[in-house]
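Record pair follows.
FIRST:
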Amino acid sequence: QPQRVAVGRAIVRKPSVFLSDEPLSNLDAKLRVQMRAEITKLQQRLRTTTVYVTHDQVEAMTMGHRIAVMSAGKLMQVGTPREVYEQPANVFVAQFIGTPPMNLVKARVTDDGHFLEGPALRLPVPSGLRSATAARAGRAVVVGIRAENLIEPGRSGSSETAPLKIQVEVVEPLGHEVIAFGRLGDDLLAAKLEPHRAPRFGETLELVVELPALHLFDQETEQRLTA
């Protein structure tokens, strides 16, 4: 109730900008969802510019028209929720935005620029990134794979895929889907699976990587590599 009163007191003053600093951080989960919807409807009705600070990426993704991601006082990236999610500017943004966080694996571009190789990884470079890797042959990179792009064979709509095996360590059933965490060498990767095909602990899970959805970052600067 105090949160609602605070919002109401701000509205009646008819400001040109609303500044909200984590207004929902002390609320329980159910009330957070309700208040998120209320604030969104108010913003749409009042059409008042709102600067909303939050550590909750779900709030940022669902409420924001544009997101500014900050770390240690520095601006990492500004863009629409879709831009920030699909084209993260650096490793920090890639890990911060998305649930579960993006899988990140250290690798090296082969000397011919055609493959990405790590201690337990070997993936062909997707056609859309060959120009980016050709100039970085033999150099260290970070390969990013979203959990929804690491899937069961036969479920991909992409013509460019590559096989990958992980050793299952944790399984999280969420009702509409299952998140499986598995070991690939020293890295723990997350994959989204069908709810009725949950793997068991210790099982070797055969998956495919949707190559066009790969993200590449320079290992030294941690900045995104683009074609």
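SECOND:
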Amino acid sequence: GEERVKVKGDDDVLIYRAKCCNPIMGEPIVGYITRGKGVSVHAQSCPNVQNLLYDPERRIAVEWDQGKGAGEPTYDVRLSVEVEDRPGLLAAITAVLAGMSADIRNAEVRTFDDRTAAIELVLRIHDLKHLDKVVGAIEHVPGVIAVERVNA
């Protein structure tokens, strides 16, 4: 998929989104020049960035490319939803998502002995605003305890 990130003033650089934090359009991002692989783009909030695992010399300014290219870019975002284990809850969540054009790429449910369950969702998201709306909507489904974005 198209990455839709650009290095300020340079269009010929290979850019890829870092797997550790999978930044999505709208999040504050930073770029690092990697050895031989172009520029890796991290969310500013990424622990790897916070821990200064990276040489500040290799930091480079990057920005989201808002240019209207072919279609809106989408990003696969993984959410972990902690819920009460009750019938119909997954259906309620999927109904909410269907109304928000957040395609479900994958859903896995694990139930626990304490009558709770964890739903792992991989959703196709447009940007940070979209993600915030989707998370808010899931949180409002009765029986949902917590929603967390997971990287990995």
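COMMENT: The chain has a mean pLDDT of 86.
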